[in-house]
Each structure stands twice: as structure tokens, then as C-alpha cells.
Amino acid sequence: MATVHHALVLNLHQPPGNLQELLEHQTWEAREILFALDRIPRSLWGREDLARVHLSLSGTLLETLSDPVFQERVYGIVDCGALLWHLQNQALFEVVGTGYFHPVLPLIPEADRREHLARWLDIARHLLWRPQFQGFWPPEMGFSMELIPLLRAFGYRYVFVDSEHVEPVTEMSWQELRYRPHIARHGDDEIIVVVRDRELSDAQESGMDVDWFLNEVAERTRWCDFAPLVTTCTDGENGGWFRNVTEGANFWSAFYLPLLDRVAAGEADVRPTFVSDYLDEHGVHGEVRVRTGAWNTGWHHGRDFTQWMGSERQRQAVADFAEASRMIHDARWFAGERGVTEGPESDALAEALWHLLRAETSCNLYWGESWVPRAEADLHAARQALERAVSLAPSPTAPEVGSEAEAENEPDVMSATLAPESASARSASHDTESGVRDALPTDPSPDAAVEATSTRGDVDPSATQP
């Protein structure tokens, strides 16, 4: 049997302000998360010969870890500066791109997707000292084929997708479908898709020993007449398996390091690998389609985004994202046409967009309706900022005779009524230039009425209220 290549992928995300809130109200839980993050590079020091880990770090987590105020607050628990420095080790870590505020990309407008991707690249290039990121991690593994042109435009070579949603276009066996990378196409664009093994990933999330993993991988790949790529993807700092501080009782000390020992001793037919290295050596096989969906959660299978869209209030929030996005990007277009790039109007538009993007954080929809008030509060703040921007803009001049066609194509920003607190869904339009990024407002604090905290993993959010 050919050597099995194992791609380990860990998603690391904490929503805006969450670690700060946990430190204030549930200190031990915050420490567990910080220890889990810090444990990743510490566990792998000196293992550069074999260890290979893909990391997705959300923009909000990177922002928190690089914040000098937060760094000072947690110094003595974790040295955030040293942690970020160790994550630059490209012998151990292949960092993959994602969205800044960790949105479920198929559920938000196209113009906002571009903003999330561009802002993540800005902070990741600065903190991690990488000019390019080959792979992409869709937050919550939320993927649709229409994302392919966008991912290619941002330079991504491959994207992770869940095995539940992959369908063959080229004839292939079950083993080939799951354990080989493939091409997926949308229009004139194509991208490599790397398939997450859902069942093995479930085991990685909850806890497994080396013997079980090696036996299971051997059974699943026994009929492969090619070099299989087995990909397991989970959160990397949530749940007791990753947070456990007891030596020999967490993912790293009970599973991954013993696995490396077995590989080094020649007692395992599994070899850790980076996806980029596998692709360079083995290439891709065949074409597939990927159905729209997300990864499985503790409650839902991910096929219809029920986790994030199961209630009317959740669906209304998604509709409100689209409405607010349309108005904000129309207003930004109108300002751009007039050459407005700085000053009070520009600042207000930047603030409106920032609140909108933060509202789209997946955690705001993940916990049923418990966190939807956070999204609603940010949407309200976005509308207020947009109203200020509109009040500062001049009224559009009346079109000259014969210019009706041009006028019809321009967004009627000034006469548009600002969205009510619950607006119906409308499709986003008018793309925005991705080359210029707006500065973040200086006060990112959420509304006091929605200061719940998240731990994801296996903790009910109702138990984490301060």
C-alpha cells in the first residue's frame, strides 16, 4: 500500500471582544483558550522534520493577539508576541487564508466577501510575514461554487471543502473522490478542492488514539492505487480535547506527538504533509462539483445552513446584511465618484462598513438566537454611521437632458430611505474597489445589551453569560 499523506488542518477563531469578556467574567475559560493556542507551537518545537500543520487564524483573533493592550493584560498567561512569532515558522505551519470576521461566505453579499478577504490578507501579511497564502479555509467550511472566481482573484490555489458536499463530474471511485484533490470550475475559473474526511475529522474533534487512527486510515485507503491525501479539519482551540491542560490528555500529547514518534520509528504508513507539497508532487485528479453547504456541527449536518439560518430571526439578520450592504456600498460608490477619500463623510462610511462586516461574524448566527442581538446592534450602528455620511454628502445634481440612461444606472443614494431595524432581503450590487482599505474605528465595543461570550466547542452559550 502507498504511503498515506495526512493533512492536519486547525481552525482558530475567537469573535471580536470574546477573549476580553471571558477574562473579565470567566477567567479560567479564557486561560484554557490561550493555553490551547500557545500549546500548538510549543508542542512542535524541535519536530520540524515531520510535523506539518495547516492553520486558519481569523482576522479578529490576529487582531486580538497583536493588540498591545491585550498583550499586556495576558502577559504572564501567554506571551502573545512570542506566539505570533512562532507561528511564522513555515517548516511547521502552512497558514491558509480566511475571512477577517469569520463570516459564512455564501450567506453574505459578494461585495462584503471581498472586504473580508482583503482585510484578512492585510493583517496576515503584516503579522505572519508571508506575501502569499496558497490555501483557503472558508469559515465554517461554508462553500458555494460561485466563490471560485473570487478565491482565484485573490490568488488562492486550493480550498478546503467537506466530503458531504462533493460530487464527481469525472468518473471516479469513492476512495478517489475523498482522498485525491480535484478541480472545481465555475464559469471560466477553476480551483483545486481538497476534501475533508468528515468522519475522521469528527474523531479528531472529540478524541482518538494513535492505533485507532492508523487502523481506520489503513482500512479507508486499502484499495487506493495512488498516494492518498487524508485531510482532517477541526477547530484547534475549542472543546476539552484541545483545551485540556493535563499532559497526556489532550490532542497534542495524547495523539499527535505519539503519531510523530511512530512515523519516525517507521511504525506507521502515514506521513504528515502540507497540501502545497502534495500538490507539487502528485497533482490533482478529475473534476468535481461541490454542493452549497457547510461543515457539520454538534446539531446539524451543514447541508442547508440550518445552524445559522434555522430561525426566522436568524434569517432576518441575513436579509438585513444584504439590505445594509447594498446601501453602504452604494454610498461608497457615490463618494468615490466625487473623489471623497478622507474627511468626516469618508470616516462615517468606513465606520458603517466596519460595523456591517463585524455583524456578519458567523458566531452571531451560530448560537441559535442567543447572539443575534449582537448582529442587530452592529447593524443599527452601521445604519447610524451611514445616516451621518449621507447627511454630509451633497445632493446629486439633476441630469442634463439626454442623460436619463446614465442617471438610471447610478445608485439613488441620497433619496434612498435608510433600512428599518428589520429590512427584507435585497441582493447586493455595485462592487467596491479592493485596493483601498478603510481604517477601523477606534471603539469596537459591542452594545452593552449583547455582551454574551462564546466558547464554541461543546459549551452552551447560555452558560457563558457574565
From TrEMBL:
Superkingdom of the organism of origin: Bacteria
Region (Disordered): 391-466
Chain ranges of the Glycoside hydrolase family 57 N-terminal domain: 52-256
Pfam families in the record: Glyco_hydro_57
MF (Gene Ontology): hydrolase activity
Record's keyword terms, sorted: Carbohydrate metabolism, Hydrolase
BP-aspect Gene Ontology terms: carbohydrate metabolic process
Bias kind Polar residues: ranges: 452-466
Signal sequence region: none
Family membership: Belongs to the glycosyl hydrolase 57 family.
The name this protein goes by in its record: Glycoside hydrolase family 57
Protein species of origin: Allochromatium humboldtianum
Lineage summary: Bacteria, Pseudomonadati, Pseudomonadota, Gammaproteobacteria, Chromatiales
